[in-house]
Amino acid sequence: MTAVLYVIAALIILPAVYWLMWREDFSGIRSEWYYRQELKQRAPMSAEQFHRLYYAASGIPAELVERFRRFMGKCWGVEAARLLPEDDFVRMHGVDITDFVGDLEEEFRVQIPEGELSTLDTSFDGLLRRIHVALNGSSMHKPDLPRSGGACVPTQSVGTRM
Predict the structure, then answer these.
(1) Which one-letter DSSP state was computed for residue 43?
(2) Can you tell me the distance from the alpha carbon of 95 to that of 115, in angstroms, rounded to the nearest whole number?
(3) Contact 130, 100 (CB under 8 A)
(4) Domain containing 129 — which CATH number?
(5) pLDDT digits (tens, 9 = 90+) for 26-71
(6) Digit-coded pLDDT (tens) for 144-156
(7) I need a surface site. Which of 2, 14, 72, 129 has the fewest CB within 10 A?
(8) Kind and range of the H or E run holding 52
(9) Hey, how many other C-beta atoms are within 10 angstroms of the C-beta on 10?
(10) Distance between CA atoms of residues 42 and 50, nearest Å
(11) How many domains does the chain fold into?
(12) What's the CA gap between 102 and 120, in Å, rounded?
């Protein structure tokens, strides 16, 4: 009888624990499932609204903000109009930062020193600000390079999955 109770408890408790772990990571990072649900609830913002709300006083040009926003949306397979500055796809997806920064460098024709990668803020805001700094430093600007495809390839569209 005791063995039957243990089996029943295991059949109930283990799936519940697995579901909780899948739904929410315990390392302080929002799970992809949680993020997809939140993303669906966000109201889309125009480029002008987004810049005015988050970057008007930053000195970062609206054109750069929107270009970066479109890049991030395309890169991660999400609707760019629903992105927020605190979104951190690199951390959430566990992407190799070296490959992703290579994609950023190619897209924006800048160079981010390899020594900065371990301390780089990988949120949308942190990456945008770092790109802005790199673009304003003439020694960090790179000539046009052909795109090679790197880490920036979404497996599924985050904004449309159920």
Answers:
(1) P
(2) 18
(3) no
(4) 1.10.1200.10
(5) 555 556 777 778 888 999 999 999 999 999 999 999 999 999 999 9
(6) 433 344 555 444 4
(7) 2
(8) helix 47-54
(9) 10
(10) 13
(11) 1
(12) 13
